[in-house]
Design a protein that fits this description.
Chain lengths: 92, 365, 64
Amino acid sequence: MQLVDPTVQSPDLQNARAPKLASLQGLTVGLLSNGKLNAELLLRETAALFVARHGCTVAELVQKGNASAPAGPERIETLVAHCDFLLTANGD
Amino acid sequence: MTSPSLATPADLHQLHEAPDDLLAAIDYCYAQGWTDGLPVVPPELARVEAMLEWAPLPAEAVIAQHPATGLELTVHAAAVNAVMAGCQPEYFPILVAAFEAMNERPYNFHGSTASTGGSAPLLIVSGPIVDEIGMNAGVNLFGPGNRANATIGRAVRLIILNVFRMTPGIADKSTQGHPGKYASCIAERADVNPWPALREELGYPQDVSSVTVYAAAGFVNVENHGGSTPQQILDSVADAMANYGSISAGQSVVVLSPEHAKIVASTGWSKAEVRAYLFQHACRPLDGMKRVGKYLERELALQARAETRGLPDADGAVHRGLSANDILVTVGGGDAGGHSAFIPSWSRGRGSIMQSKPIGVCLDC
Amino acid sequence: MLCTRPFEVTARNIARGMGLPQYPFAILDHPLGSLTPDQIRGRAEDAYTQALSILLDDEPLLDP
């Protein structure tokens, strides 16, 4: 018998990693938090190490607003405009 | 209702040559990874075409899109999975409307299906379609035995697995989940409901049925056989709503048994009064929340965000939800038994907001 | 991107779906939510070390 496939094709997403950085000295760190317990603290403490060891500055932390939904293009554009690299975290 | 598809599946979609022997075809479906662990009805071509005859939209119409992966649910893919679940074609408009509801951003389809919270979409159907397709709104409301309830709910899960690839352990990180993840579809009981039906509260025309989809955690049975006043019954429900394992700023669904609904409505309480009472009394003291490690001012503020009315209360109580509007009250179950259900929402906060859609029609078009 | 070990398979699944199967991220011990601030600072050191490789190396380690 002929059975119809119940699955669908994945969308053809064209994405690429940002190129590696030549140096971290003096760069701005962006922080995107999902709001989970200790997420903000972890991000800030990690960023503090970049500040202490590489002279980085930290941009204002952005909250995703909803832990389990994508950040949304507006938030992403804001982050891209104000930092050189981003620290974020997923899951719990 | 019938609506012919614009293209046959054979023209557009992948077909598998499976054995003619039915049992072998069932095994084939298992081997492809298409099941929820139970045997499925092999999605034979003619059955899919018959399901599409009841589609309220063209076969290639996109009903829902996964916000994180971009995977899209078409009417056609929904029909294939509906066949596999064992749905009759006349059930299909409910399934389509349910995913239209889940596609609304506030429902948070990804979060509610991926989270460690392990919720399942609970479908509550209200209106004339309940009797038209023979849904169960009575005895054993949440349990097995009714084809419509069982297969519509099951089709939801098969779509989540097969189309959206929310595979347990990989994309679905439910710590424990709950049995409702197999199927969660109930009907609102109309004959003994002392209050307006859900579809009427939604403002739908009398001949239009509704489906409400709610990201539901495992439910709490609220047993009370001695209470004889609205307060006694509702105090039991409110206590369940505020249990430390469930309390959050999220929404609630309360399904009152006919016995409980009769008592609650016996002195003329409106549904609005019921919801207000539940909201007022479903609370825990601030000290208690801190004692169990569940009160974190920053987290509550984050979760409540712009909707906060200033948690906690002036009296130091932390309430479940943000207002009485967060509580859906309906009626269902058998005539006998002081057993109602409180169903907590997924997430520690307000991660998902329940959504409703009309079935088979577009009221905004 | 930081995640804890139980969510590694989920993160890799998402990366694959986004067309970036080799996307590197930092993997930390689980859990985080119940840790004290001092314990979080310990995790931050681990996160920093892995982030350095991700940001600066041509071929960052995917699973240190």
